[in-house]
Amino acid sequence: MLDQALPSELYVLLPATDNSSENQLRQIATNSERLEALRTLTGSTYFLTTGRVIVCIEGEPAIARARADLQLFTRIYPRSTAFTFVPSKGKGNVIQTVSSLRNHLPETVYKIKVRGLVDADQGGILPDGVLSLPVCMIENLLIDPSALFRFLSSRSISDFASPSDVSADLQKISAAMRDSEISLRVQRRLKAHTARFSGKDLPTVKQNHKSEIEKVANLLPTDEALEKIIAECTSEVDQILSDNTAAEKFRGKQMLDEFFHKHLNNANISKDEFYLALADDIGKNGTVAPRLDPIFDSLVQ
């Protein structure tokens, strides 16, 4: 019903203030174009009318797949249901959506808080209002040896005698990821370029093609600089392995997928069942709350 509302029909009711003469009704959009722009940003008018803090996150809408980021998050961290999440695909889209929504819906006017929450897997400085998770990606929050052990035991899979055995196996998996994690960090440190070829005729297209190749060729730094980048990335990964913090700083999805392949691939259990059961277990036991509470306290400020 809200998604079908016209600009003249859609308002939010602000909390009461000491100023009794203030009109608590605020029209969301004064024309169809602006309302459509807001719908495009959030995917639904509903998100703008919940009265809760709007948090743009990475990932696809939950309907796209059973274990979308939003599905996992609300199960892992029950407190998150007090927020309105807007899945916005990648990190860049999250930042852009937060900025655009803040421009369209100034907090001073509409009293609607718009924030962003992104994975901690790419580094960089985040703009005001956008925070990062304390882990590489949301799947890292599922890497809990005790929860994994309970899941295997409940399915009568006796590969491990205790959670400490699960932890040791996860360390082996993370050690095997060393080279790919180094490569990933090197990739992030190097500049990227998207090549596009165009032109009104064959000579122009070929000239553009040549120009794009030259741009790509010039992206690679000197051998000395490249060796330094590789050495720094190698040192970072080795330090993570030495500190046994790979469960937080390596790609959690890859770690869990490898664990699933090793121990559950032939157990007639789907990955969706595996992921969602872990999320429910962790949410019930409140194991991630101490790590996420400070972030969500900041989101409401």
Structure, described:
This protein has 301 residues and is an alpha/beta fold. The chain contains 13 helices and six strands. The protein has helices at 32-42, 69-76, 91-104, 107-110, 145-154, 163-176, 178-189, 202-217, 223-243, 246-249, 252-263, 271-285, 289-299; strands at 11-13, 25-27, 54-57, 84-87, 114-118, 130-132. A four-stranded parallel sheet has the order 4-3-5-6, covered by helices on one side. Strands 1-2 form a two-stranded antiparallel ribbon. Helix 2 (69-76) links the parallel strand 3 and strand 4. Helix 2 (69-76) runs parallel beside helix 12 (271-285), helix 5 crosses helix 6 (163-176) and helix 7 (178-189) crosses helix 9. The radius of gyration is 24 Å and the shape is globular.
